[in-house]
Fold these 2 entries.
Entry 1:
Amino acid sequence: MTTAIQCLASTADDATRLGARLGVPVHRIAQHRFPDGEIAVTVGPAAATTILYLPLDQPNDKLLTILFAAEALRRDGCSRLVLLAPYLCYMRQDIAFHPGEAISQRAVGRLLAGLVDRVITVDAHLHRTATLGEVFPGIVANDLSAMPVIAAALCQSRLAPTTIVVGPDSESQPWVDTLAGLIGAHSAVARKIRHGDRSVEIAFDDPARIAGRPALLIDDIVSSGGTLIACAQALLAAGATSVDAVITHALFPPKMLPEFTAAGISSIRSAHTVPHPTNAIVLDDLFAEALRDEVGAAPPEALT
Ligand SMILES: O=P(O)(O)OC[C@H]1O[C@@H](O)[C@H](O)[C@@H]1O
């Protein structure tokens, strides 16, 4: 069995580290955009087992890239295609919120399940869907948790013993519980009302729990940043002595960073799931462990 990783240039560094860890070659997928907006995709040499390393932030072109890469790889002899999408797109659109609205989660799941044999992701945003298997009918799907890795990183950074781990809404309760349990910290979860894509309102039922403590704000996704900013402001209003944030997926544009600072957030650390300047938590071990059984005896080669 031969195994290789294929990645886009934007994630070559992360993919190269993973390739070295697994002892498999890493090849780049080239993309060309035609004047009419269509794209051409050129894959590297196909291996019998190919791992497509493709975080699905800014996803629309990337979904087409998977479609075209799968066509080329299968034609060139790939018999097993594994999608490693450290961030999985469209998981939040899991019901029809308005009459006639597409359930994007379902559509994307069915599309990908028809193209690849296995999907691996991290902290998929599954709140009304019980398991990732429901999203990807007929194939294996693994939703890895970044929380143990985040907990280990936090333990190394020596948190103040009074630190309180805070989640911005009820959806964050599982991560908050897991993380607070792993690092042995107090915890609190806010109530959130979303008024629009960028407008949210955050309140704490028991602000006295927060007063006088450094807060560690935890979330899976920061996209518009509205949730993080509103939560930081509510924490500081409740008397938190400082606010630092640790998130899994940093989807916001880096030019927004001054807005977080202005809201009183001292630092933001994210996991290496999408390319981002706040990335500080490396998930190589998590990915290598999940992919161990996909790896044959192929010798490592340089990035081509
Ligand atoms: O407020 P923004 O950053 O746009 O969106 C991210 C938030 O929206 C939720 O679904 C996520 O879990 C996170 O709390």
Entry 2:
Amino acid sequence: MTLPVLIPVNRLEQAKGRLAPLLTEAEREELALITAETVAHAAGADAVILTADPRVIERMAGRYRVLAEDPAVHGLNGQLERAIARLQADGTVADRLLILHADLPLVRGWTIATLAEEDDGPGCVVMVRSADGGTNAMLLHPPGRFRLAYGPGSFERHAAAARAAGLRVVESPNRELQLDLDTPADVAALLATARGQQTAAGHYLLAIGADRRLAAAQT
Ligand SMILES: Nc1nc2c(ncn2[C@@H]2O[C@H](COP(=O)(O)OP(=O)(O)OP(=O)(O)O)[C@@H](O)[C@H]2O)c(=O)[nH]1
Ligand SMILES: C=C(OP(=O)(O)O)C(=O)O
């Protein structure tokens, strides 16, 4: 069964603001592009990139399906709901949809496959919580039963809304989906493991000396 994967990608100049103490603006933009590539690659033919950024569109178009944001809609939640409606209307989305953040450096194809196995059938929502209480991944079976509520601390809001809509909430302990790259502590966590260092984001962060900057900040 195919699982469409909707990946919202923020405008690069607005992305990764909480990494400003560690990375320059150009570095944050490059890191955001690198992790978006990683996530899109993991989703492969099921990926649908949602963005308003011309560089992201240029980089992804041709390899992945890309939806441009609707300029008449305000905010991430409205954009996602608009995109889901478009994907339902054209038949891309039927009974299941995974919304996946674009800043997950450890995600692989099998990570998504493993998450999909935690879906126990119609009426199920599988969610992955980030360190700061966000919703890094949310598999909706089906989509459209409650309003999306991304923003700080969204995991608890999504879980409560899903339960209020009569859905079963499964919190996945999927470690590869729990790590996002919002803060210097997240970067440190990625670089603390050999596996993390071997990711595309890890390679880039080591190449620009983010490990040395983190160490210097601690002394
Ligand atoms: N298309 C789209 N994606 C967004 C928007 N805002 C955030 N995102 C994406 O939503 C996911 C979660 O974003 P965050 O990690 O909270 O935010 P961010 O864009 O990195 O910015 P910071 O809050 O500065 O870290 C990521 O995949 C972002 O790329 C938006 O306005 N439009
Ligand atoms: C804003 C969110 O994500 P995070 O804070 O984890 O980046 C969210 O998932 O709603």
